[in-house]
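WP5 quarterly update. Target: Alpha/beta fold hydrolase. Source organism: Anaerocolumna sedimenticola. Length: 255 aa.
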Amino acid sequence: MSYYNYQSKNIFYEEIGTGKPLLLLHGNTASSNMFLNIANQYAEKYKVILIDFLGHGKSDRLDKFPVDLWYEEAQQVIEFLSQKKYAEVFLLGSSGGALVAINIALERPDLVSKVIADSFEGTNAIDAFTANIVNDRDFSKQNEGARMFYQAMQGDDWESVVDNDTNAIFEHSKLIGKFFHKPISTLQADILMTGSNEDVFITCVDTEFYRKIYSKMIKEIGHGDFYLFEHGGHPAMLSNQTQFIKETLSFLERD
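Structure tokens (predicted):
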């Protein structure tokens, strides 16, 4: 297993395949294990890089997650890219990982060529989601399917990881709210946003949420595109895996 150092902590990473670097960035309460069924397919064309953010998966644990979580995780990836001397990379982030990917592209446009941002909330935390996050997570910890997912992603200490993540999301919504430090209008990288119209995390807010928020963001950015799947749950990249790979490879391969 490979690790790199960030602020005296060890962060796990894995590289698969050869070619232009494509980083797959996991979502909240997940780890790079979420990409086990999809990484090798991208590795046929690219050097796929998997990272476990601090506090997750095979990386060192944290007593508490930073409140500005997705910005801080972006800094972890920026440090990795700097140490490896990678530039103009492709980023594919799912859910919380999409927020990380956009943050990286905003903070260091010299490092990023294209961004695929899947199944994310937009530019600001959604009150309807964060207001119930503590109760929803407590309920999920009693659900056998959710427990199996947490265990597969984090290992035996999954509950402390989930609790840390829950607290960070809740505090972020109260203290910060915005996901990005820089205006989305300054994004230079080409971007593709994806999501599912049946995503239960979002459709409970608005059945047209992704279409509305992605359209608004692309208008502010001045370029980019989005692709919505009619069916499938959260995140779209896993619930629509075959079609997702097809659409995203097409995006990555075009000039």
